[in-house]
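Subject: sequence -> structure tokens, single chain

Hey, anyone have a minute? Need the predicted structure for the following. Not urgent.
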Amino acid sequence: MSDERDRVHDGDVHDGDDGVDGPRPDDNPTEILPVVPAEDADGASLNDASPDEPAAGPSGEPSPDEPADEPSGNSASDHSADAPTEVFAATPTDPEPAAEPVAEAPGRRRWVKYVAAAGGVVAVAVIAYAVDWVVSADRVPRGVTVAGVEIGGQDPQTAEATLRAALGPRVDRPVPVRAGSTDSEIVPAQAGVGIDWTATVDRAGEQPINPFTRLASLFTNQEIGVVSTVDDAALTGAIVGVQQQSDRAPREGNIVFEGTSVVPVAPLPGQNLQVEPAKDTFVADWANGTTVDLPVETVDVTVTQAGVDAAVRDVANPAVSADVEVTGKNGAVATLPRDQVGKVLSFAPDGGGGLSPQYNVEAATAILSPQLASTETKPKDASISLSSGSPVVVPSVTGELVQWAKTLEPLPALLTAPGPRTTPAVYEPAEPALTTDGAKALGIREVIGEYTTGGFEYASGVNIRLAASAINGVIVKPGETFSFDAETGPRGSAQGYVDSGIINNGRPDKAVGGGISQLATTLYNASYFAGMEDIDHTEHSYYISRYPAAREATVFEGAIDLKFRNPSKTGVMVQTIGTNSNITVRIWGTKTVDVESVTGGRTNQTSPNTITLPAGPHCVPSSGAPGFTTSDTRIITDANTGAEISRNTRTVRYDPVPIVKCVSNEPAPKPSEDTSTSPSPTPGG
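Reply:
Had a minute. Here:
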């Protein structure tokens, strides 16, 4: 009966076979009464066991050392100490019931209930999944957003309409973009960017099959972005426009001076917008309604802020705290004022994050040297005087000058000295470029070439004599090249030159400095017969009768020059002699060659055209002259042996001189009437 008692103690009620053979008392549920344990003579329950001993054996039978439990009867009211209790028990020969051990039945029944409940949940979930699939099969997956616009659960047509309404206006609105530290804007439509509506909706894809994905979509969003249409050329232009604003070279840390104020310049890295990646970034992000960060490449600087601060503290601030003085002879003092230190002191990166001071000795010399000029003796070149009619060497003079490079060697220390900032000037002898002995060795003793021209007007004579004085006495050493422009320029009103005749676009005209081509022609012929090497010369555009044909030259400052080289072993000197009516040029040196000129005949003559111009200062009447072609051959022979050294022929084509008529109130000519004979202006005279 221990099994039956256990069932009662467990509080479980069983409706099946209870192990008792025979008919049930009735068809009503059997009432199970509590089992009252039998007591021994001492009143103790026979079912009680020692705490340290088991109540029954392994088979459920009573322990050999303890009396068996008494079974309970069918009635709870008939129990007494001497009344036996009716026990319903199976005999040893009776077979065991087919049911599992009763002790395992409650757990098994709970497990069955759980399985049944889980199965029900699964069945409901499967049905819900199927219904959800059928209902949403033709719709956009739940949770899908495009540029923040929700279209999940909508059919494609509705989704496209939703996107058009929400995102369509963004195409024409400026989108803020940021390239490094530069903010700008791009209008997508103007940059060739739009939206492919169908492709954007298609990007959402089909309904997911995975049930967990479908479940997660109830609580999460999936941003897929727009699919853009792109005009690559227009987008490139828009990005390049931003690049022009954003790109900058790195600005190194530096220090500048404003008078006596020291101004630190903070270092600033450079940046370069990456055009192709920037295009991709803009296409991907423009529709999101936020600032689009375009990719830039940073160009680092080498000077740190700490390096700038150190240079300000240790060099710049001390440098402007006091003047620097250089003491010269006879008590003279030259001062570098502290407000001009910025012209002398500058800074450059030192490669280690700092700034290295740079000292401009030339700038310091320019400030200081004029203040000590009176204490110096300038060297004077030897010269050759022709006042007696023949060359006489005038001795050179050795000077004494301040050697500023040596004088300013202490400048870095002076600019940071806490006390007086004074240093003495260093004087040294200064030899002239042409010493007395050098002048004597040049061999300038006789005229080796001479030429004279005349017939110029008064204004031309003024200009000719001014230019002639500039080249008078010029010495050209062996191998050196003479330049007319270098010796006479500039030739403007400030130098005393006046308006005179030139050839402008093939016709006579006037300009400041006109007429000096006559001096150029005279000099060219003198150097021609002196045997000088022709380096550069240009003939007039048309022939002027007072010059030898094919043996004349014009000049135009800055454009047309006259150059010759001294090929001899001795030096040559230019002498000019001017009067009111003519100009003479002589070349002095040592005669070694004889020169002969042979002029060719005139061929290919052309007739002049007629130009009518408004009367005025720039209209010079002309009767005209024919154009032609001619040549000149120069033959150079040895002055001692007569042997021919060289023979060179130069062919020249002259344009016809136009017939110019000056008429009052006549409209200005068309450009073609002026430029038909000569393309460029050339001074004449």
